[in-house]
Q: What sequence folds into this?
């Protein structure tokens, strides 16, 4: 096998002829002179159609390092006159149009950015932090140009995530059927969500059957306007969180009453015990330690109002647990819980049942379909990991690019490696 054929194999390029290889002692790099094969010459760099030449030129592209030496591909690349796009640089088979790096360099950089921090990626690839971000955006744009992520949406989840201090949010939309992120945008609110439905279009919005979200007014009002036929499912996590907040509010009220009425060491001890009862009240009954179970028994004997609030909280959690196996029974249990909470004379839970009644149809859909925002919450957790791994980002666009790279479709593979199959 000739030296040039060996170099072609090591460069992992297709439709390319290696003409010469030399070492530039001044720049301490390897320069590989290449040219496209006959079938790939004289094509528009944007649409790839054959086009007449306009002028001549020569360029370099950064390729993967060979050993400790940086490697560049060098080729004569003329400009061509395309009937659709005008005068543009001719296409080359080893790099994207307008890029200064080869496809293999972009692919390995994107793989590393998906697996580790951008700082480590920049150091290993011997490039800048900003260049890594540009490569990620380029790879994502190239992948998205070949597939329409919004094409077959039926069941989606909508949520927002805070990505920086100062009320900085992003809105994320996921596909429940594929478990992939399909759309992310900076900001939150009606205007941002309307942008998603503008991109989706009225025809595809009409095909949506189920949408999971929390009880935010900006989500429910936008869905009522843009996707009225879709069934909105209320995320059970938020309903249980409401109940936990109501229970904790009652615990603080009980502690304050005991503190005001405290007389002597026994009264102060009772107030202190109520203050320290938070985790015993919050924890699932099956997971209580012996000490926490004893504290609940003590609360039942000394503060019936607080124990009543704890029972209401446990009963609401049981409604969602029952829905996993018996949805119809869970609906009846929810109606019973609303009736019980309405008559309980505990202000926080009376207010909670009014809140649940307002979201009753969405909660009913959750009990019947089993949908939740678990997938979007998982996406939020992974997004926070991306932010932490990058030690912060200067803009939401950089975060969005990495989120779409890692969570919106097939993750990049290392160049020259076979795709792993399960």
A:
């Amino acid at each position: 096998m000739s030296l040039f054929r060996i170099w072609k194999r090591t460069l992992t390029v297709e439709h390319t002829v290696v003409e010469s290889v030399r070492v530039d002692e001044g720049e301490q790099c390897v320069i590989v002179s290449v040219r496209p094969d006959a079938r790939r010459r004289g094509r528009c760099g944007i649409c790839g159609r054959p086009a007449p030449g306009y002028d001549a030129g020569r360029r370099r592209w950064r390729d993967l390092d060979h050993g400790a030496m940086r490697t560049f591909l060098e080729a004569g690349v003329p400009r061509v006159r395309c009937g659709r796009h005008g005068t543009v640089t001719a296409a080359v088979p080893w790099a994207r149009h307008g890029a200064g790096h080869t496809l293999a360099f972009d692919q390995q950089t994107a793989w590393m950015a998906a697996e580790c921090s951008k700082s480590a990626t920049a150091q290993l690839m011997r490039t800048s932090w900003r260049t890594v971000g540009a490569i990620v955006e380029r790879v994502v744009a190239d992948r998205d140009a070949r597939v329409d992520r919004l094409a077959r949406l039926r069941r989606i989840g909508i949520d927002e995530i805070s990505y920086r201090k100062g009320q900085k949010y992003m809105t994320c939309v996921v596909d429940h059927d594929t478990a992939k992120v399909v759309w992310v945008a900076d900001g939150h609110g009606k205007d941002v969500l309307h942008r998603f439905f503008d991109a989706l279009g009225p025809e595809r919005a009409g095909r949506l059957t189920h949408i999971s979200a929390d009880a935010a007014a900006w989500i429910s009002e936008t869905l009522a306007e843009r996707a009225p036929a879709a069934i909105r499912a209320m995320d059970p996590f938020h309903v249980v969180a409401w109940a936990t907040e109501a229970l904790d509010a009652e615990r603080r009220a009980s502690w304050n009453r005991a503190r005001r009425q405290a007389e002597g060491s026994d009264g102060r001890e009772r107030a202190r015990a109520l203050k320290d009862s938070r985790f015993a009240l919050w924890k699932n009954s099956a997971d209580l330690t012996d000490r926490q179970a004893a504290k609940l028994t003590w609360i039942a004997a000394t503060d019936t109002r607080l124990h009543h609030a704890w029972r209401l909280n446990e009963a609401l959690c049981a409604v969602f647990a029952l829905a996993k196996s018996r949805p119809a029974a869970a609906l009846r249990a929810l109606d019973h819980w609303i009736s019980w909470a309405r008559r309980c004379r505990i202000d926080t839970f009376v207010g909670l049942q009014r809140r649940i009644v307002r979201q009753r149809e969405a909660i009913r859909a959750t009990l019947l379909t089993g949908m939740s925002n678990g997938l979007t919450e998982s996406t939020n957790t992974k997004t926070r990991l991306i932010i932490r791994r990058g030690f912060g980002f200067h803009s939401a666009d950089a975060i969005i690019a990495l989120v779409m790279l890692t969570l919106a479709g097939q993750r990049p593979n290392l160049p020259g490696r076979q795709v792993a199959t399960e």
User: Anything to note?
Assistant: DSSP finds 17 helices and twelve strands in the chain.
